[in-house]
Amino acid sequence: MIVCEITTYKSVPQGEIRSRHLQFIRKYGDQGRVLMAGRFADSKGAMILWNTDTLEEARRIAGEDPYVQQNMISYELREWPLIFNYMVEPPLRP
């Protein structure tokens, strides 16, 4: 299941907290749980595409994020039933 996390920064994270957040993302990326992640160009928030078995698993993992634990962001998790994926060869189809 793909879960889309949309975040809004309460303040733009920098320094040590950002480093801890990036380590968190890399940890789950290495496990195949993060498909894509990045800050929006306007630096007002970010998006993470989670690859989890359930929405509850995505909630649990998101709760481990240093940004969440330090109350630096607001965020929403939404299931995303993928219909088209042109990022792989050949494209995945439902």
What kind of sheet is the major sheet?
Answer: 4 strands, antiparallel
Number of helices: 3
Named CATH architecture = 2-Layer Sandwich
Q: What structural category characterises the helix and strand content?
A: alpha+beta
Task: Determine the CATH topology.
Answer: Alpha-Beta Plaits
Task: Using the coordinates above, name the CATH class.
Answer: Alpha Beta
Instruction: Name the strands of the widest sheet in spatial order.
Output: 2-3-1-4
Mean pLDDT: 91
Low-pLDDT regions: none
- CATH homologous superfamily - what is it? Dimeric alpha+beta barrel
Radius of gyration, in Å, reads 14 Å
Q: Report the helical percentage.
A: 25-40%
Overall tally of domains: 1
- Overall 3D shape: globular
Compressed to H and E, one letter per element, the order equals EHEEHHE
